Amino acid sequence: MEKEKVEDSKIMESENSLQSDGNVKQVVDFALEAGRILLKNGGEIFRVEETITRICQHFGVEHVDIFTLSHGIFVSAENEKGDAYTKVKHIPLSGAHLGIVAEVNELSRQIAEGKVELPKARERLAKIDRIPASNSGLQILGAGIAAACYGFLMGSNLTESVVAFCIGCIVQVWVLLAKKGRLSKIIVNIAGGMLIMSFALLARMFATMSPLRLDGIIIGGIMPLIPGLAFTNAIRDIADSDFLSGTVRMMDALMVFVYIAVGVGIVLITFNNMTGGFIL
């Protein structure tokens, strides 16, 4: 009888150990997926780490270490026996969707408050990950309005602001088409800069009422291409002492500026050489 009790207790311990290991893996996998979605859609480094930690601690995984970069997450957790479970997730640099960031952040807070269990949280996270981007028409209209407003702030008159609006819409159409075609960021931004300068010069050539100034039109037109969120997050990461992630994001944003300048410069030099500086 005693031998049977000892064997039964060993079996129960092994089953509990397996169940504990499984729980740790399930929790870490879920928390890592939440972090991946945040980082992919423009979440800051501190927000990603805070969300993963909050989820793990609520579901009983107290010993968790997180190392987050701008394009990757490393998570290591331990069970009661000290057995470690480590997982790495690579997240390529991409665009931003702040609506998804807000939804994941809200879900993590509800989990921490005990309002959502793990199975239900998985379902909600999967739905959040599938939230589509804003309507293409709205994105094009927003890009045009942003271009016109920035042009106006730079001293453009009404006609120049209207030209900037049209260029902004055209550039956003190009960006959306490039995303569907999965084109390289280098090609997207260099070609975008060339489109902006080309249409700005054409508008100036065909302006009959009064000559158009190019500075406000060009500055307004490049607004749809500017990675403002990435640049802001880079500064935030550096301020939070995440120097490696901040530097990577900063370099990524600065290279976009270089690509745009190259595209604008190619067209500007070409037109200048073709016309002998007459247009400018």
Q: What does this protein look like?
A:
By secondary structure, the protein is mostly helical. The chain folds into 2 domains: 2-129, no CATH class; 136-275, no CATH class. Helix content is 70%, strand content 7%. The protein has 10 helices and 3 strands, in the order ααβββαααααααα. It has helices spanning 2-40, 45-58, 98-112, 118-129, 136-153, 158-180, 185-205, 214-221, 228-239, 243-275, and strands at residues 64-69, 72-78, 84-90. It has a 3-stranded antiparallel beta sheet, covered by helices on one side. Strand 2 (72-78) and strand 3 form a beta hairpin. Helix 1 runs antiparallel to helix 3 (98-112) and helix 9 (228-239) packs antiparallel against helix 10 (243-275). It is elongated. The N and C termini lie far apart (100 Å). Residues 1-21 have low confidence and may be disordered.
